[in-house]
Amino acid sequence: MEKRSLTCIGCPLGCTVTVELNNREILNVTGNTCKRGDDYARKEVTRPMRTVTSTVRVMNGVLPVVSVKTEADIPKEKIMDIMQSLRDLNVPAPVHIGDMILENAADTGVNIVATKSVAVKIG
Q1: Which residues of the chain have pLDDT under 50?
Q2: What is the pTM of this model?
């Protein structure tokens, strides 16, 4: 039997959660003070997922970059692939909150969207 200790990020409490496994089968989750802790621990030991937030360069904008994020959680192992895609990306101004910046990032089926608006630079 294997035991994994995690710090839960499901809520601000940051509980230390212990997951007991037997051949990848979850036997027990302890230490959580809310249901989110149980859900987080189960997902983290079987298929860790993350939200990616970053910035993308904007051409001819009043700001040089726009903040972006994944529309949904993505597999943790895809983070670096997504970051590389964003690093190489330039988008034209204007950009509006919610605009799709990158479709199907790193073949995850998840889009990258703008979380801020950037107007066109005049003059």
Answers
A1: none
A2: 0.81
